[in-house]
């Protein structure tokens, strides 16, 4: 069982310790549910009231909130960021695989580095390269001539098609599919003719891809995911998309083909982005937006209508349906006012 003395945590996190440094911390929990032996954090002013009845052994907070605290504390500038590092130290998640499972099917031409683990019923095809410390969970498929970089981890039932490149220290969650064909067809007098996708997918270092997310291979050129990109569950990344370094994509996002997204962007959940255009660096798109034009200036962008009572929504819809007529009447009135003056 993982555990740390509070003073050791303070030293590793570069935090200022207040209270008993010999307290043993073996878990982390929310401020409402934390109990003895656990550490919690205060990063939202709305949760200050919980400090009065806190059951945790210690709390992470700012110097400003220390006066409200009556238990041991670690004082930092950014409690939420510190929580991330504490969670890593106390993480009890098992590894995707250990050693090479006897029933894993590994082609004789595959090249495995040092300390590689492959789970049960996984298939690794010809000329695959798994570099040192790679972990492949159970039931995965790794297609021909794919390369997976050092210390990357795949959870169970991940499918990696042929000739894919994945960088080092990546994490791919269960059910993700990398390198499937994009939605490319030509129409021959009403009949759809499939266009083979001859490109690949290139994924940078320290990329995380959520469960059941699909990243299509390029049609002619490649689909490229930059370094440090994080993609949530159930996202669709179409063929030839390019995502810049350190961009974050929340769940349920759909990206059209040949879209280029810049660095350090944040895409809110359930957003749909049209293909064949570009979004510049440092753009934030709030959830459930529809993006149909290029974005050339950094900033925060939104679209969509917030939820409202059905009765009000019906009235709003009626007005929207009449907006063309209202516009014509307004122009007629403006014209008449100008004429009279």
UniProtKB/TrEMBL annotation:
Superkingdom of the organism of origin: Bacteria
EC number, UniProt record: 2.3.1.191
Any one annotated GO CC term: membrane
One GO MF term attached to the UniProt entry: N-acyltransferase activity
Enzyme class at the top of the EC tree: transferase
Pfam family, one: Hexapep
Catalytic activity: UDP-3-O-[(3R)-3-hydroxytetradecanoyl]-alpha-D-glucosamine + (3R)-hydroxytetradecanoyl-[ACP] = UDP-2-N,3-O-bis[(3R)-3-hydroxytetradecanoyl]-alpha-D-glucosamine + holo-[ACP] + H(+); a UDP-3-O-[(3R)-3-hydroxyacyl]-alpha-D-glucosamine + a (3R)-hydroxyacyl-[ACP] = a UDP-2-N,3-O-bis[(3R)-3-hydroxyacyl]-alpha-D-glucosamine + holo-[ACP] + H(+)
Protein's pathway: Glycolipid biosynthesis; lipid IV(A) biosynthesis; lipid IV(A) from (3R)-3-hydroxytetradecanoyl-[acyl-carrier-protein] and UDP-N-acetyl-alpha-D-glucosamine: step 3/6
Signal sequence annotation: none
GO biological process, one term: lipid A biosynthetic process
Active site per UniProt: 239
UniProtKB keywords: Acyltransferase, Lipid A biosynthesis, Lipid biosynthesis, Lipid metabolism, Repeat, Transferase
Domain (UDP-3-O-[3-hydroxymyristoyl] glucosamine N-acyltransferase non-repeat region) ranges: 22-89
Assembly description: Homotrimer.
Sequence similarity: Belongs to the transferase hexapeptide repeat family. LpxD subfamily.
Function: Catalyzes the N-acylation of UDP-3-O-(hydroxytetradecanoyl)glucosamine using 3-hydroxytetradecanoyl-ACP as the acyl donor. Is involved in the biosynthesis of lipid A, a phosphorylated glycolipid that anchors the lipopolysaccharide to the outer membrane of the cell.
Protein name in UniProt: UDP-3-O-(3-hydroxymyristoyl)glucosamine N-acyltransferase
């Amino acid at each position: 069982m993982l555990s740390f003395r509070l003073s050791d945590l303070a030293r590793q996190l570069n935090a200022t310790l207040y209270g008993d440094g010999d307290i043993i911390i073996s878990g982390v929990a929310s401020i409402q549910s934390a109990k003895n032996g656990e550490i919690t954090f205060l990063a939202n002013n709305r949760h200050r009231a919980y400090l009065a009845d806190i059951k945790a052994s210690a709390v992470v907070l700012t110097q400003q909130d220390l006066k409200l605290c009556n238990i041991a504390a670690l004082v930092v500038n950014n409690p939420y960021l510190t929580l991330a590092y504490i969670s890593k130290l106390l993480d009890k998640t098992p590894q995707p695989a250990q050693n090479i499972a006897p029933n894993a099917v590994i082609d004789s031409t595959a090249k495995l580095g040092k300390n590689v683990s492959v789970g049960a019923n996984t298939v690794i095809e010809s000329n695959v390269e798994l570099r040192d410390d790679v972990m492949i969970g159970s039931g995965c498929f790794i297609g021909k001539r794919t390369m997976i970089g050092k210390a990357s981890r795949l959870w169970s039932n991940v499918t990696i098609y042929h000739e894919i490149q994945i960088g080092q220290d990546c994490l791919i969650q269960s059910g993700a599919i990398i390198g499937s064909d994009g939605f490319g067809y030509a129409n021959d007098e009403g009949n759809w003719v499939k266009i083979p996708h001859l490109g690949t997918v290139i994924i940078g270092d320290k990329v995380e891809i959520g469960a059941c997310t699909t990243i299509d291979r390029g049609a002619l050129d490649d689909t490229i995911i930059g370094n440090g990109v994080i993609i949530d569950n159930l996202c669709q990344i179409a063929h030839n998309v390019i995502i810049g370094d350190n961009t974050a994509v929340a769940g349920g996002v759909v990206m059209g083909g040949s879209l280029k997204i810049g660095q350090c962007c944040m895409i809110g959940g359930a957003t749909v982005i049209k293909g064949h255009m570009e979004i510049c660096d440092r753009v934030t798109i709030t959830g459930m937006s529809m993006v149909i034009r290029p974005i050339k200036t950094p900033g925060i962008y939104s679209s969509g209508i917030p939820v409202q009572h059905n009765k009000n929504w019906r009235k709003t819809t009626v007005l929207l349906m009449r907006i063309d007529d209202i516009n014509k009447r307004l122009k007629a009135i403006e014209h008449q006012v100008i004429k009279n003056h």
